[in-house]
Every structure is written in C-alpha cells, then in structure tokens.
Task: structure prediction
Amino acid sequence: MKSEPETYSIDDFKNEKTTWWEGVRNYQARNFMRDMKKGDLVLFYHSNANPPAIVGLATVSKEAQPDKSAFDKKSSYYDPKSTPENPRWFCVEIAFQKKFKKILPLEELKKEKSLKSMVLLKPGSRLSVQPVTPEEFAHILKMAEL
DNA sequence: GCCAACGTTGGC
DNA sequence: GCCAACGTTGGC
Result:
C-alpha cells in the first residue's frame, strides 16, 4: 500500500497504531482491498518520497467496509456518487507492525531479479493498493533483514 | 516542476 | 461504444 509521506508517513502510522485506509478512488485498488483478509501482511510504501521506498510492515486488522470519507462533504475524498445505501468505495483497517531499520528504496528493488515481475516495478504502474506474491514478499522481508 | 502513463468523463 | 479532453500519479 502506497502513501505519500507528506500526507501520511510510516511515523504517523507508527504513532496511530491502526488506520483506516481511506481515500482510495480507483476501482482496481478498491477491489484488492475488498479481497483482503484479516491478518494479511501489508508492505507500506512511501511514494513521491526521497527516496521512494518500502519502509515498513503492517497487517490487515479489519476487513473492508464502506469508506466513510466518501460521504463527507467536507472531505477532499468526498464522492457524491457513493452513498451509505449504495457505497462505491471501501477501505480496510491496517495495524502497524514494523518500521524497517533498513528501508528498501525503489532503486534497490529494481536490481533484484526475483522481484522483476512485481506490480510495483512495472513501468507506469500507479496502483496505490496492489498485490504482492508470497515469493516476492518473502524476498522483501529478507532484504529488510527481518 | 516536468511529463509520461494511465484512468475517468462526457459529448457524440 | 468510441475517443478526445482532462485530471492524477509518481519517478525523476
């Protein structure tokens, strides 16, 4: 899951301990969240960061429910097409697990042969919530020395 | 700040 | 249902 550190960083997350992943307004990303199960592992990625990098680990603590920020007129995530009766957007709650002592910059990830087909590394890939295979996940945890 | 890649919108 | 216009993402 990607977040811009200026908006919501791994440190913000560490302080809060859990957070509802509100504001995703992309159907593919939404579908991935809807499919998430409690206990699923999550990589926390800093996008638009210096350097862009995987910076931590989380778990899904609550499965998908309607994204309330879509109903809130004052929210920048407000979407009039999503209503409590017929919600269009969903989000999961994730729980903080770890901040990597050794972050994994995008540049390093690109060098890894076994991560070649990661969605994150596909050119033009902008999905803010995206799948990671068990093999990729294991490799990344190893790189992070976990 | 630029811009390429991508997704969405809306006129026809 | 096509597709041009527009908005957004995110690396650089």
Remarks:
- Helices of chain A lie at 10-16, 27-34, 106-111, 134-143.
- The CA atoms of residues 102 and 145 of chain A lie 8 Å apart.
